[in-house]
Design a protein that fits this description.
Layout (H helix, E strand, L loop, with lengths): L1 H18 L1 H9 L4 H38 L7 H27 L3 H7 L2
Helix pairs in contact: 1-3, 1-4, 2-5, 3-4
């Protein structure tokens, strides 16, 4: 499921780059460096994955709370597991966002602006 999630985030980021090609061209024509564009899309991918991971952790905690009450079953969600899940989500965001971010940073400003018209 982590692999599928990573592919999903990569697809979302490629669509985001495609939709914002004109904006990327304008940013680059106004002096934005390739590194800025790269970090902008990497940051977006990581934040997207971390927020998704935190939502998943909250859902697991709520389900565990219900199961603990209903089945007299002890489920412990430790701080280490929460940090591990959040860190893994960030790594998946970083890995799945690298190719879209590189493709966004290498866009030619003139072609990017022209494609948006």
């Amino acid at each position: 499921s982590l692999l599928v999630g990573g592919f999903g985030v990569a697809n979302i980021m490629f669509v985001s780059v495609k939709e914002r090609t004109n904006l990327i061209g304008i940013q680059k024509s106004l002096g934005a460096k390739n590194k800025f564009i790269l970090f902008q899309f990497l940051f977006e991918a990581v934040i997207l994955c971390v927020i998704g991971g935190l939502i998943g952790i909250v859902l697991v905690w709520l389900i565990a709370l219900v199961l603990t009450k209903a089945l007299d079953f002890e489920f412990v969600l430790s701080f280490f597991n929460i940090c591990l899940g959040t860190g893994l989500a960030a790594v998946i965001g970083l890995v799945s966002g690298i190719l879209p971010a590189i493709s966004a940073s290498k866009l030619d400003p003139v072609e990017a602006i022209r494609s948006g018209m």
